[in-house]
Amino acid sequence: MKPHHTTWGIFICLIFFSSCFDTGFPDLPATESLHFSEGVCVFREKEKPLFLTATGDEIKGLNAGSIENLAKANLLGIGSFSSGYAPMQFSTDSREFFFMHIGQDGKPLSEDKYTYLGEFKDGSAVFKVGQAWGLVSDKGKVLVPARYEALTHGTGNSYWIRDKGAWFLLDRDKGERLNNEGFRIIGEFTDGITWVEKLTADESIVMRAYMNQEGTLLTPWYENARNFSEGLAGFKKNGKWGFLNTEGKEMIQPSFAYAGDFSDGLAPFTTKADMGFGKWGYLNTKGEEVISPQFEYAYGFSEGMAVVRDSLGRRGFINTKGELVIPYDYEDAYPFSEGLAAIKHQGKWGFINKSSKEVIAPLFDEIIPFPGKPFEAGFSEGMAKVEVAGRQFMVNKEGKCVMACLE
Hints:
The chain has one helix at residues 20-23; strands at 14-15, 36-37, 40-45, 48-52, 74-78, 85-91, 97-103, 116-117, 124-129, 132-137, 142-148, 150-153, 158-163, 166-171, 185-186, 193-199, 206-212, 224-229, 232-237, 240-244, 250-256, 258-259, 266-270, 280-284, 289-295, 297-302, 305-309, 315-319, 324-330, 332-333, 341-345, 348-352, 358-364, 366-367, 369-370, 373-377, 384-388, 391-395, 401-405. By secondary structure, it is mainly β.
């Protein structure tokens, strides 16, 4: 289900320049969560926030108590920086709670205070005043007054509003609804197209169709539909999965019991009715079987390699020719990212390269997935988030502790 507004948490970062680089596992009283965005990391020290760069330098304009005109307010929560600003929640001694956008120089974007305030996306952010939602620009201008029961980003110059429990796409300039029929749930726009969901008249069956950014339905109603990947989206009709393009044209006819999303030009599929027992292979964007069904389970490709599973539940990696290039040596594995893949061996997680060489020994209890991507975890911008004995750490590609955190 698409969230009704941009979600963000209270994220706190701890940076250490100590023996953790030698041991990799410092015994530190880390009690908050890591957050790093647009070069800003936040550290809670003695219940007061301290803003640092990735190298540990202080960002003076954001030091605790120095945020302009808010020295007497208590800082409760900090969102991600985007467009140079982060939504922050404050309280006063009189128990007033409010949100404001604060820049890296410590100055508020505007003097307006909100019940809720989201992060900027494509130059705008959702806000809430009382029980009504609106939209504000990254220049502090109110684009949509607070008058809707829910609001979220759409695409281009449009946005979604919820009215009496149904979602409608509105043109921001004209203020007109682009779709006459309200929808139960909405997807994410990709290349100007998204899926929308409704129930049958008797409310017994869920159906999905694809709609463009002008509010026009491009397809009939299907049993299921997914987001686009590499220009194609999976849809389910008469119990089978196929793929269509961004014009709504069915490019691969529905003939698969299940087919995953395309990556590196290939999508995993199974032709058996029961996904748990059928063999898995891969098809190309023409719908041709290029790797025959032979795996107990197959995952999507990343950086030219994909995780596959054998009958004993072990994981290995294949290339785009279907050749097993890394043996079934692992209890679990994630896709490659930045040249390394997280693997689980004898109950612990580590990292290997594409030659199956162990780069970081299996020492970690968990590898923390990327936000919003539960089946993907590993390195991003040279760092990976791991867990040991209930504590979460950021490590570099040498396995050295860079930052420590605990959620």
